[in-house]
Amino acid sequence: MAGGLNGAEPVIRCRDLTKVFGSGSAAGRALDMAREGASRGEIQQRTGATLAVRDVSFAVEPGELFVVMGLSGSGKSTLVRLLNRLIEPSGGSVEIDGRELRGLSDAQLRQLRNRRISMVFQHFALLPHRTVLQNAAYGLQIRGTSEGEKRERAQWALDQVGLGDRGDAYPGQLSGGMKQRVGLARALASDTDVMLMDEPFSALDPLIRRDMQALLIRLQKELSKTIVFITHDLNEAMRLGDRILLLKDGRLVQLGTGPEILAAPADDYVADFVSDVDRTRVLTAEDVLREPRLVARLEERPADVLRRLGAAEATGAYVVDDDRRILGVVHDEWLGQAAASGRERIDPGALDDGFATTGPDRPLIEILGRLGRHAVPLAVVDDRGRLLGVVPRAAVLASLAAVPTRS
Ligand SMILES: Nc1ncnc2c1ncn2[C@@H]1O[C@H](COP(=O)(O)OP(=O)(O)OP(=O)(O)O)[C@@H](O)[C@H]1O
Ligand SMILES: [Mg+2]
Fold first, then answer.
1. 162 in helix, strand or coil?
2. How far apart are CA 290 and CA 366, in angstroms?
3. Which of 18, 20, 50 has the most ligand 1 atoms within 8 A of CB, as the residue to mutate?
4. Are 246 and 255 contacting, i.e. CB atoms less than 8 angstroms apart?
5. Which of 62, 141, 178, 354 could connect to 3 by a Cys-Cys bridge, CB 3.0–4.6 Å?
6. How far is the CA of 73 from the centre of ligand 1 (A)?
7. CB count, 10 Å around CB of 168?
8. For residue range 286-323, what is the model confidence (pLDDT) as tens digits?
9. CATH 3.40.50.300 domain position(s) in the chain
10. Are the CB atoms for 11 and 226 separated by under 8 Å?
């Protein structure tokens, strides 16, 4: 996950954020009831007001793709609208870059929405009588950028979303997926570091949706945007989110990375929810990584390595250099002969390449077919070829069966 680790200040921070929809007196009674712990249903029944968002606290780090996920009515859109103060909170606070939104003047708020935070909606309206390029430039229109700069920025944004050659078309000539990409381009053209996206892909066909998700992940990496992404689709949340905030009835029920939520659901509701997630796509090599027990050095005595192998009931071991780079695999057969003939070191010529490697970020679905083919478990290596750990078959199977394997 980006940010946080380097101690950077969160881009967005909410504290006890609460929103009630209802007339003044009803809303007041609703808040009182909420404080006493009444459920959303009870509050609705007794006061007629809707407690849409309830005591939600979280912080979004710079460069993070932060997903808010929940069923219809759980308060997602309300939450995201509170973040740029399209609606006023009934309680709690929102800070952007450490500044309380409540303290901003109207002019400052406009400035914030133009320069700092852009928003993409599920069904946002393209202007039908304007070209795709003009639509992409729309956010800039309002801001009064020069004509040439506007066109340049909009063209760049269209290039980013793969519509660079459709600038002269009209929205009516585009497919749904393309229109949604124009919406994304509009947000990109405005060049804000923060993007709020309220179910931008929900109306798209599954395959187009996948393309859009891949596009978003790429853009987010390349342009290092901070994105709050709303979805009601858990698989989408798992695919996109650095972290996922789960909302239920306006409350935060869990906040964590996809693998964290899969490994330890906060309650039965979440457990039920995640039960049909495709774990092979969510969990990565890093999530099932184990400390390699059988790592040897060339300087070691074959008899000693053989003993360790025997104790672990294994038939081969990785041999690594001083930087933990893998030199090869040594097998029990050779070790047995070498031990019998009293050798003091492992002979580099005895090593073979009977092993497979993968990167820490690779999903299990890519790894599954490569497990168990060799005497040594699959090696997880970093981009410099250093051994980070191994993936034993049992660890993968346990994680797929949702058996907690880490405590
Ligand atoms: N302007 C409003 N006035 C009154 N009630 C509202 C208003 N906006 C939202 N609500 C209510 O607040 C609750 C949360 O709504 P919200 O739109 O935030 O949910 P959501 O998670 O975005 O749902 P969906 O997935 O259907 O978009 C719902 O009960 C909704 O009816
Ligand atoms: Mg919504």
1. coil
2. 18
3. 50
4. yes
5. 62
6. 5
7. 10
8. 888 988 888 999 999 999 999 999 988 889 999 999 99
9. 61-88+100-279
10. yes
Residues ≥6 apart with Cβ < 8 Å to 65 = 216, 217, 220, 227, 229, 240, 241, 242
Q: What HEC string does 153-209 produce? A: HHHHHHHHCCCCCCCCCCHHHCCHHHHHHHHHHHHHHCCCCEEEEECCCCCCCHHHH
Centre of ligand 1 from the C-alpha of residue 218, in Å: 31
Q: Cβ(46)–Cβ(54) under 8 Å? A: no
**Average pLDDT of the residues of the chain:** 89
Pocket around ligand 1 at a 6 A CB cut-off: 21, 50, 52, 70, 72-78, 232
- CATH superfamily, region 286-400: CBS-domain (3.10.580.10)
Amino acid, single-letter form, for residue 144: G
Is the pLDDT confidence value at 406 over 60? no
Domain ranges in the chain with CATH number 3.10.580.10 = 286-400
Which pair of tokens denotes residue 68?
């808010």
Q: What percent of the chain has pLDDT over 90?
A: 58
Q: Which amino acid is at 65?
A: L
CATH class of the domain defined by 61-88+100-279: alpha beta
pLDDT in tens, 106-134: 999 888 888 889 888 877 678 999 999 99
